[in-house]
Amino acid sequence: MASWRHLVSVVVLTVAAAAAAAALAQETRFRTPVDGPDVFGGYASTHVLVRLVPGVQPEPADAGRAALVKAQATPTEQDREAALADLLAHWQVTAIRPTADPQPQNVRLARQLGLDRHYTIRVPRGSDTPALVAELRDFPTHIELAELDGVGGTLQTFPNDTYFGNQYSLHNTGQNIQGQTGTPDADIDAPEAWELHTGTADVVLAIIDSGVSHSHPDLAGKLLPGRNTYDGNDDADDSWLISHGSHCAGIAAAISNNGQGIAGVSWGALIMPVKVTSDLGTGEESNCANGVIWAADHGANVGSMSLGYDEGTTYFHDAITYAHQQGMVLCVATGNTAGADIFFPARWPETIAVGATDNRDNLADFTTTGPEMSVAAPGVDNYSCWDTLFNPDTYTYESGTSMACPHVAGLACLVWSANLSLTNDEVRTIIESTADDKGPAGWDEQFGHGRINARAAVQAALEPQYDLGDLNCDGLVNGFDIDHFIQALDDMAAYIADHDGDPYPPCDPWLADINQDGYVNGFDIDAFVALLG
After folding, report:
1. CA-to-CA distance for 502 and 485, rounded, in angstroms?
2. How far is CA 97 from the centre of its chain?
């Protein structure tokens, strides 16, 4: 690929210095952290909507600067036009176009309602559009109104399961659960996620636990053949004493929308019971390790392990590594001993370590936390399936990181169902990157990346995934991306504007920001050349 290196060096470097200097000199505002951009219930970060004062029209100005010009403007209005042009340049406005597309056919009515004066002002993705709207409202001589473009869509999908109202973890309206009134929306946004996808039987969930009830009406119809590695046989029925595995299985993937019982996070995932403990819930690491290997060898995509061990044997870690490299997503409870080290196998990097929250989004006081924490999920007073000798085929509340873990495992099934082309590492990245940040800003040892958000995770899974440098969306980083890279490097605003409205636009232009510093400039050249190979 030496020829590509030579081409980039010769052609790109001629514009690199000027582009880098310009980008570093100006105070940019894209990718500013704000609340609610580009998410359901929030607003667009790529543009704002305005209605212009009669007589005002968008007009390109010198050096590609966007402008709003009023016919027969007074000297005072001309001064405001200049100030407005400076504002638009500061926000790196890439285009000002009519919002109506196509234009209304009843021109007279459209003019009467002012529809012909509505325009969309486009800015780089990640811009602080609420701040932009506030600044645009300071120009009443030219802008009659400015507003955010809200993000919404079809309404939530609610299942008809009898006890769904008890499942605050899926939909928290502030209902009282076991004596504690919850905080509305302190949940994983499950109904919002189900509006996008409810899961499919293409994804298999291994409940690596105390077994799963073969008789419970919310579980039996989804069970696959399982394995009992504690006793070395195929009887993976749940313990008649503790019903731990059944409770976890119900949270993750109970039969849903069937007019009875509860709903699972993933309606579609099939359940593979892998019993690795005695009926008292105890067993050796080797039992669990063998269960993990068996699940990986028999088609499990996701593993839920609501269990923990102190030692962390090499054999157990090798089994976890085996399953991970076989493509499984491994979700594990961190433990219920606050102040202790996170238990194995949650302590190993191949697993998603899950802590517990309550119905107010507080970290559960029993949660084991530490540097290995990945995400948190509701784990206090969760209502799910129960099947013991004295309470067969019923439901009850249980608490623990054991209950938090299957929420994440169910979400992994849901995310993978939405996009079967994802790898196990990509599923994990989506779950972590879309979690709602809790506690200190950013990752922390208490909440990890935050409390999981099913809607955001499924939405991310449904969006096309492209690598840095793949600017023409063909799934490869090669010579066909060079022209796009040079255009972005030379003038990002013009590059975006040139393709605005294209029926087949290039991928996100910010994929040209190879070093992820928030700018497309000369500092990205070496990294781009390296990607070309």
Report:
1. 18
2. 31
Catalytic, 244? Answer yes
Domains identified in the chain and CATH numbers:
6-28+475-532 (no CATH), 43-150 (no CATH), 201-462 (3.40.50.200)
Cα 276 to chain center, whole Å? Answer: 32
Report CA dihedral (16, 22, 23, 25) to the nearest 10 degrees: 140
CA angle, 396 then 389 then 354, to 5°: 40
Q: Which of 116, 128, 161, 209 is catalytic?
A: 209
With DSSP H G I counted as helix, E B as strand and the rest as coil, what are the percentages for the chain, rounded to 5? 35, 15, 50
Q: Is 214 designated active site?
A: no
502 catalytic? Reply is no
Residue 134 pLDDT level (bands cut at 50, 70, 90)? very high
What was the pLDDT predicted at 62? 53
Q: Which residues are registered as beta bridge partners of 271?
A: 205, 223
Question: How is 322-347 classified by DSSP, letter by letter?
Answer: HHHHTT-EEEEE--S-TTSPPPBTTT
Helical packing angle, 492-499 and 482-490, nearest 10°:
120
Catalytic residue, chosen from 244, 324, 449, 484, is 244
Q: What would the pLDDT profile of 373-428 be if each residue is shown by its tens digit?
A: 999 999 999 999 999 999 999 999 999 999 999 999 999 999 999 999 999 999 99
162/261 Cα distance (integer angstroms): 5
pTM > 0.70: yes or no: no
Q: Of 45, 399, 402, 417, which one is the catalytic site residue?
A: 402
Mean pLDDT on 174-192: 97
